[in-house]
Predict the structure.
Amino acid sequence: MSVQQKVDADSLWKNLGEICRWERYTGTEGENAAVRYVEAELTALGIDVEVHAFSSLISIPGGTTLEVLGEGGEMIPAITAVFGASTGESGVRGQAVHVGEAGPPDTPFGDPLYTGASGETPVAGRVVVAEGMLSPARFYYFERRGALAQVYVNKGNAHELTVSTIWGAPTPESIARMPETPVVTLSREQGAALLERLERREEVELLIHAKTDTAWRETLMPVATITPGSGSEEYVLVGGHIDSWHIGANDNAAGDATLMELARVAHETRGELTRGLKVAWWNGHSHGRFSGSTWYADHMFQELRRNCVVYLNIDQPGCRGATLYRPFCTAEVRDWVQDAVSRIGGQSTQPDHPRKMADQSMWGVGVPSFSFLPVLPPGHLELRKDHPADGFPEYWHHPADTLDKMDKALLAEHTRVYAGALHELCTLERAPLNPATTAAVVNEEIGRLESLSGGAVDLGDLREAGARFARACAALNAKIESLDAAHANRALLDMSHAVNPVLYTMAGPFDHDPASGAFRLPGLQCIGHFVERGPESDAGRVIYTRVLREKNRIIAGLGAASAIAEGV
Ligand SMILES: [Zn+2]
């Protein structure tokens, strides 16, 4: 019997139903009950489960209203986003300023020094009323420009969200980015009259009462370990979040039940495995802005680098109509991801660059990571009205994400694909990593930066470092089959650890970037701002120092990875 055939749709469905008994806000009784359920069920099967207990800065949403003051006014019961500020009894009052769908330019550098302020609607001292969903980067952008508060009118439902750009637990440096102003989210229906008045250019005064309960809380996070028959210390890590908004049947009780089934199947087949499997139910994904997976990355950093071959994240599988895989991954594992989705999942896909979602907290560690991400196909009737191209459903982050949205057969199918993929990763002698794909991504991005720079920055040394890296990867690939597998795997992982922190992060290995957009060579995207602000301007000169330091950091990372390949 293949591992796919071992996946039991009834046991998946039963666990999904059980987890949906609780609203799983991190650090609350509901999430703790789900943690204890996972622990008890797997322990009963003989699986080793460790429940990590630690404190995290967690934010839980409370009662929120938006009052439109004056004649024709109304009181709208609303929701806020977690980590937004609480207003207290007196609320926050101000004139509305309509910004439509405006937001920050697509950049990892959101501060006014980088992006400038010309041509924008002034928002200082006013209440921003924006159309479409908030993002932490969008909220940060308006807050740093002096907005008193922000109101987001979604295109359909009001979706629950997190508004902090701080990835995981705050540090003395990152805590300065903690939101200091309140935020309100409305459905289109709730916000329609307000938008009409603003479109008629009426002066509108708003009063906001928002409440969040943001505090350090004790939290629980289960991680199961399947030890392979080979006794090897190497492992594959698979994780998904256990916390939810409301019941969160699709997002992510379905992922939690999938993880339980994957642990069960791997345990049953452990004798065949040549490397182990660790299965993590991350807490604090929404209410701690990835606090659980970040805790794990920080605490297990050395072990992850020593033994973790690849990380798979599972989020929201098995909802009705989610027939399409939309994989994303770090570059070195892309060939295998594309091939696996085709062979095991029967779909031809073009895996995308990694995205800043789904507990991708391992970029600084540098372990290869991927996600298959089942989504609704284009044109599906249940697509979210905000950003429908993402393929997420309209009941995403909403009380309507309940069991009736789930498709038992599709959930089993997705789980079978994950089971097949993980079994392959846990038995392949050679880690399916191709550094030449990374080199191609690096050099494509260097080319893009050169044209962005238009000669304003000398990138010759960076171009040389990229070319050396490509040569070293090609030379390594030419002889890799003749190397013993353990030796080759070690070199490939060491290269990932050296290059991924410069390819995908600004903060490097030992810290976490802001939880906003994902970029390649993000540290050097400030070249665009340098050119825009003007090399001779004060801001341009300040940005230039950042450009130089980032260039040095990236050249060093590429050099270290090249040296590993050349030394094999
Ligand atoms: Zn999710």
Residues 241, 251-252, 315-316 surround zinc ion (CB under 6 Å). The chain has a mean pLDDT of 96. The chain has 16 helices and 16 strands. The longest helix spans residues 538-567.
